[in-house]
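hiii, so i know i said id send this last week but things got crazy w the move. better late than never?? heres the sequnce for the chain we talked about at the cafe, plus the structure i predicted for it. fair warning i was half asleep when i ran it
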Amino acid sequence: MNTTAIEPVLELDGVVKSYRGHDALSDVSIEIRPHEVLGLIGENGAGKSTLLKILAGLERPTAGTMRLRGQEVVLQGVRDAARKGIAMVFQEQSLISNVSVAENVLLGSEGAGVRGGIMHWPRLREKAQHFLDLVGTNVRAEEQTSKLSFAKRQMVEVAKALARCEAAGVEPVVLLDEPTSVLEDEEIARLFDVIRELRTRASVVFVGHRMNEVLDVCDRVYILRDGEVVAERDPERVDEDELYSLLVGREFVDNYYHEEDRAEAAERPRIEVRGLSGRGFEDVSFTVHEGEVLGLLGVQDSGADHVARALFGAVPVARGSIEIDGRRFSPGSPTAAVRRGVGYVPSDRKTDGCVLSLSVQDNMVLAHPEAVSRLGALDPVRGRKTVDSWVERLHIKIPSVWAPLRFLSGGNQQKVVLAKWMLDSGLKAIILETPTRGLDIGAKADVYRLIRRLAREGVAVILIADTLEEGLSMSHRVLAMKDGRVSAEFACTRTTKPTREEVLEKMI
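okay and structure toks below
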């Protein structure tokens, strides 16, 4: 997938971005060429998101220059970037659910669908459909946005980006921020078809965290580490092992899931669930033993996520029973669950797992302030030592423990959410809902190491995995779920695991 070396569409030269004395980017120089898919890959905190925000006009560099089609520019914001032909598709979707696809695609495109000062809906839909067709999706402009799957909404986001760039009258630069992070394999394949079609009429910047995807869809790749570009590679001449070494500064470890650290589960039951029923799940029964990792595997709407939230008291239970260490437990609320030693890491960390406006330290002690208290009062010295210890153990990259969590990358935010449960000396069970989703390979390895540690300490772990491979590799046993019920159970020993096909057959 080589591209001819011609004049770049967009360049950054010596760009620096500092936040409160911390350099998120340091002397970064890159170029984006016409009709190519340029990959940006790096660990969480490497500077990928910051770099993308500068390209999109969301942030201004502290130093350095940007050139667009050979001319130096200073972007005045997202709308200015769009007028110049640069648009970004964000990791967190920005569509409005209760309006039509057409309205979302053309939102912010002044004059679209207006005739004689009056909105002309057929014209609006026709114009929006034009951009949807350019993307190559089968979504119709008149459809209600709320009824679309996440994957289809992602296609609408790309069409919206093209629409915003139309006024520039030039071929656009489309920035894609980890667009595959919550997509299934088939949806990823369709998105890649769209990206390959898109590159015939645009330049694309693809930020990813899965190395195989970056190698598959990109023409060139820049590797970032600690805010610097450490290498540029041709995907046809590099493999995943070399990329890993460039990403994290050390050689790839074959035992990615740390199976050598896997401890045998005890015979003593930690959690016993019998006939649990509620909205989205029916008659679910299972046991999790001390030190056991139990995987819940299912496609979207399988009910696995509903069961996880019910165990934590986040959604009501209609009937059934739960016992923790042989004592009945009625999870009426998350507070009740925490008091019984149950922790929960939700899939949507920004909404349910943390408070972005609070500091790293405040977020880490949020669930268990008593862990850093003395005589009933918070002890700042003890708190700082405890937080510093976990920041070091989990390799959390932060400017300061007092920095608001919103300044951290997604992966480092996730590590803080995980760390807050490690402060609980009475933790008996923890429910992890896709804890590695959106994380890079290095951050995932840290999370896997932490899960192994929890199990060794006797904590019962319920894992809703991000991928089938992750679930089978990290778990002692897995339960396949389908239509809200447990459809099968499989043992996963070091030497014997079910095949993907065997598990998928029970999930679909």
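btw The mean pLDDT is 85. thought thatd interest u
miss u guys!!
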